[in-house]
Design a protein that fits this description.
The chain is α/β, with parallel strands linked by helices. It has one domain: Leucine Aminopeptidase, subunit E, domain 1, CATH 3.40.220. 37% of the residues lie in helices and 22% in strands. Strands 1-2-3-4-9-8-5-7-6 form a nine-stranded mixed sheet, sandwiched between helices. Helix 4 runs parallel beside helix 5. The longest helix is centred in the last third of the chain and has 19 residues. It starts with 11 loop residues before the first helix and ends with a helix. The N terminus is likely disordered. The structure holds adenosine-5-diphosphoribose. The site of adenosine-5-diphosphoribose has 25 residues, from helix 2.
């Protein structure tokens, strides 16, 4: 069954009302792909080529995916936000491994360590761009940060990865623009590589989750025939 999400007021609330009523999942067909969009509780899921993109509101350090992604800095020195939370919960072994293996991590690149006391076995540390004006290669660098994190996940045979909204805190990237890049980059990667099997976006605040849900809806709608 194919439902046209262009109908109605186009809001996330409308999307969620539509998904909550009647069928629990809806299929869409496009020339490039076939996917379903499903809502379970406070989670939105999209299935692409046998892989899943999931949006949740929560704390990335609580995720049980095989890897979680850290929003790090080039010096790999523990900071605040996601970085601080990961180092606090994961314990000192993460920093010890970073110090032993890597000097620094240029913006857009990614490195990997064990997860220490975290539920996730691995932490992928990537560095998103500091937002200036949107014309200083920030979109390309943000895209690279997601791509290189996903490539590391493939290199290490990791089936599930959780991302925060990279660069949208201390680094000041506007949430809507960051969400568009994040979702499109992950979507394109999954379509091409058919792995990792599950990518979760963990959004810290309700309004961040809403922006991601709305952006995901627009992405799906734009791909719908
Ligand atoms: N789980 C999920 N998301 C979180 C969490 C958490 N525990 N804590 C914060 N966030 C959200 C923020 O609200 C923001 O939307 O993660 C997003 C990224 O914010 P930051 O962690 O500040 O990351 P970033 O903007 O990429 O800045 C990186 O901050 O902590 C320093 O060392 C880090 O210098 C680097 C810079």
């Amino acid at each position: 069954m194919c439902y046209n999400l262009n109908k109605g007021d186009g809001s996330v609330a409308q999307l969620e009302r539509a998904l909550a009523s009647g069928a629990r999942s809806r299929g869409f067909k496009s020339p490039q792909t076939r996917f379903t969009l499903k809502r379970e509780g406070k989670t939105v899921k999209v299935y692409i080529e046998g892989c899943e993109i999931e949006l949740i509101q929560g704390d990335i350090t609580e995720q049980e995916t095989e890897a979680i992604v850290n929003a790090a800095n080039e010096e790999l020195i523990p900071g605040g936000g996601v970085d601080g939370a990961i180092h606090r919960k994961g314990g000192p072994v993460i920093l010890e491994e970073l110090r032993a293996k890597y000097k620094r991590c240029p913006t857009g690149e990614a490195v990997i360590t064990k997860g220490g006391n975290l539920k996730a076995k691995h932490v992928i540390h990537t560095v998103g761009p500091i937002y200036k004006d949107g014309k200083s290669e920030e979109p390309e660098l943000l895209k690279k940060a997601y791509q290189n994190s996903l490539k590391l996940a493939l290199d290490y045979d990791l089936n599930s990865v959780a991302f925060p909204a990279l660069s949208t805190g201390a680094y000041g990237y506007p949430m809507k623009e960051a969400a568009e890049i994040a979702l499109k980059t992950v979507y394109d990667f999954l379509k091409k590589h058919k792995a990792p099997k599950k990518v979760v976006f963990v959004l810290w605040k309700e309004e961040h989750y809403q922006v991601f849900a709305e952006t995901l809806k627009s992405l799906i709608t734009s791909l719908e025939v």
